[in-house]
């Protein structure tokens, strides 16, 4: 299990926070700014929300739509390509890097989580792993993506699916809990 530099090493998660004071401070600032200047801005103001995210260290390409009810844990761990759409009520738990490449669509209520706890450890330590969504991926509504998952180019993840391992077959539809291969498809260009 990998950890990032902002996690306190050998820390007991039962008795205190797992992240450094610096990380917690910036997340408090982000929470305040995101409430007043991200969530409350009008729906079509995608460019404004992208400016706010970039001010907090996010790397975002051109022609992206990030809706106002998207929850982002730490924008400095977010990398977004070009022509990406992230719908309302998506939750990006960016305890580690989330990389979303070009032409990706993440539908309403989807949850991408980069962190979990080592339940076998006496201290229940937090660990993080990055998530990567390759080009032309569509994550349908209310799906859950586990830490450390990479979803290959052109994959469609069906609604309410749970993805707990890498999906490697390009241009394939997956669905279910756990997510399983349904069928291959060919994308018209």
Keyword list:
7-stranded mixed sheet, about 190 residues, alpha/beta, 19 strands, globular
Account of the 3D structure:
- This protein is an alpha/beta fold.
- The protein has one domain (21-182): UDP N-Acetylglucosamine Acyltransferase, domain 1 (3 Solenoid).
- The chain is built from two helices and 19 strands.
- The chain has helices at 21-39, 46-55; strands at residues 59-60, 65-66, 71-72, 78-80, 85-86, 91-93, 98-100, 105-106, 111-113, 115-117, 126-128, 131-133, 138-139, 144-145, 150-151, 156-157, 162-163, 172-175, 180-184.
- A seven-stranded mixed β-sheet has the order 2-5-8-13-16-18-19. The chain has a five-stranded parallel β-sheet with strand order 1-4-7-12-15, with helices on one face.
- β18 (172-175) and β19 (180-184) form a beta hairpin.
- The radius of gyration is 17 Å and the shape is globular.
- The mean pLDDT is 94.
Give the topology, please.
Elements: H1 21-39, H2 46-55, E1 59-60, E2 65-66, E3 71-72, E4 78-80, E5 85-86, E6 91-93, E7 98-100, E8 105-106, E9 111-113, E10 115-117, E11 126-128, E12 131-133, E13 138-139, E14 144-145, E15 150-151, E16 156-157, E17 162-163, E18 172-175, E19 180-184
Parallel strand pairs: 1-4, 2-5, 3-6, 4-7, 5-8, 6-9, 7-12, 8-13, 9-14, 12-15, 13-16, 14-17, 16-18
Antiparallel strand pairs: 10-11, 18-19
Radius of gyration: 17 Å
The top-level CATH class is Mainly Beta
Order of helices and strands: HHEEEEEEEEEEEEEEEEEEE
Main sheet strand line-up: 2-5-8-13-16-18-19
CATH homologous superfamily assignment: Hexapeptide repeat proteins
Unreliable stretches: none
Number of strands: 19
Q: First CA to last CA: what distance?
A: 39 Å
CATH topology: UDP N-Acetylglucosamine Acyltransferase, domain 1
The shape, in one word, is: globular
Structural class comes to alpha/beta
The description of the largest β-sheet is: 7 strands, mixed
- Can you give the helix content as a percent range? 10-25%
Beta content comes to: 25-35%
- In terms of quaternary structure, what is this? single chain
SS field, number of helical segments = 2
CATH architecture: 3 Solenoid
Q: Tally the structural domains.
A: 1
């Amino acid at each position: 299990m990998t950890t990032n530099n902002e996690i306190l090493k050998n820390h007991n998660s039962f008795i205190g926070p797992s992240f450094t004071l610096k990380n917690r401070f910036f997340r408090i600032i982000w929470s305040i700014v995101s409430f007043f200047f991200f969530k409350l801005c009008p729906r079509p103001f995608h460019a404004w929300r992208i400016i706010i995210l970039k001010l907090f260290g996010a790397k975002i390409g051109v022609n992206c739509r990030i809706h106002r009810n998207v929850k982002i844990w730490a924008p400095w761990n977010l990398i977004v390509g070009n022509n990406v759409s992230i719908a309302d009520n998506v939750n990006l738990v960016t305890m580690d890097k989330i990389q979303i490449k070009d032409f990706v669509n993440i539908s309403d209520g989807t949850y991408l989580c980069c962190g979990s706890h080592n339940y076998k450890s006496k201290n229940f330590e937090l660990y993080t792993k990055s998530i990567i969504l390759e080009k032309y991926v569509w994550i349908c509504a209310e799906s859950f993506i586990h830490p450390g998952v990479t979803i290959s180019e052109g994959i469609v993840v069906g609604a309410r699916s749970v993805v707990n391992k890498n999906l490697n077959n390009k241009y394939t539809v997956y669905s279910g809990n756990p997510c399983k291969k349904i069928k291959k498809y060919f994308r018209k260009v």
